[in-house]
Each structure stands twice: as C-alpha cells, then as structure tokens.
Design brief:
The protein is α/β, with parallel strands linked by helices. The chain has one domain: Nucleotidyltransferase, domain 5 (2-Layer Sandwich). Helices cover 42% and strands 21% of the residues. It is built from six helices and five strands; from the N terminus they run βββαβαβαααα. It has a five-stranded mixed sheet, with helices on both faces. Strand 2 (14-20) and strand 3 form a beta hairpin. The longest helix has 19 residues, at 133-151. It is globular. The relative contact order is 0.20.
Length: 165
C-alpha cells in the first residue's frame, strides 16, 4: 500500500506542514498548525498521519551556520523522537539551514507597477502578510530535499548497486 511522507518545519508559534505524493516524488505545502504545546502538537500530527496515510516523516533541524546545534535543534530532535514514539512511524531530521530564506525568496510579492493603487495588504510587513505561509513553504522545501536525498545514491555501495556491480 503506497504511503506518503510528512515534512515538518517546527516553530515556536506555528508548525509548517508538507506532504508528499504516494510515489515520494513531489512535495506539497499542507498548511500550518498553531503550536499549542508539544503534547497537543504531537496528537494533532498523529491524527494527520492516520488521515493522510503517512508512512514516515522528516523534521527540519535548525543547525547554526557554523554547524553547531543549539537549543532549537535539541527541541527538534526531542520532538522527532516524541513523534516517533507516539505515531510508530520512522521520523528523521534534516539540516534546514537556508530553508526559511529560500521560502522567503520564493514568496516575494511581485513588484508594484507605477500608477497602480497600493492595496491595504501591501502596507503590512511581510511577516504580518505572510503569517504561516513561509512556515508551510519551508516544510515543503525540507520535504523536497529529503525526498531528493532518498532517491539519490549517496555511498559507494549505493552507486555500485545502481550500476549492477
């Protein structure tokens, strides 16, 4: 039975979600959860895992640019373990450096043309206007990266297996 993969971008206020297709080829933004504490967040994700027939999950791991793991990375690793224990599906973590920046870049509003009237939403800060969307896109980028790594041979043994050696 085909299953999907869940991508998760943890935040202190919101959790961005993405889900793959059954073939594990594509990543689709799947909304956000307003964070209500780890226990409730895990319960909400477990419900989603059952509803969407999720077979595994990947959680973004916020690592500093110099490679150090700070308190947020520890929280992500603990969350991944708690989700695994509660859902009984494999849960991995993936370095998420640059995903938020890439998501922000992808979500830049189109430049305003001269002579057009400024909309009320244009006067809002990007943070106010895009609340949650960046988290959702970040989760999709995390999942897309994970799916690509899973399809790409990464070791000598993997390469030999692909070449029939």
């Amino acid at each position: 039975m085909p299953v999907r993969t869940l991508g998760v971008d943890l935040g202190s206020k919101r959790i961005g979600l993405a889900i793959s297709d059954e073939a594990g080829e594509f990543s689709f933004p799947a909304g956000i959860l307003e964070s209500r504490g780890r226990k409730k967040d895990i319960a909400s994700l477990c419900k989603l895992i059952v509803e969407k027939k999720i077979g595994d999950a990947v959680i973004g791991l916020p690592i500093h640019m110099d490679g150090r793991r700070g308190p947020e990375a520890e929280k992500a690793m603990q969350f991944a373990e708690a989700l695994h224990q509660a859902s009984k599906i494999p849960v991995e973590t993936l370095d998420e450096r640059w995903t938020s920046k890439e998501a922000e870049r992808l979500f830049q509003p189109a430049p305003q043309r001269r002579g057009t009237k400024q909309r009320k939403t244009d006067r809002l800060s990007p943070e106010q206007r895009n609340r949650g969307v960046i988290d959702e896109i970040s989760a999709s980028i995390i999942l897309r990266t994970y799916l690509a790594q899973r399809r790409t041979p990464s070791t000598k043994e993997d390469l030999e297996a692909c070449n029939g050696s």
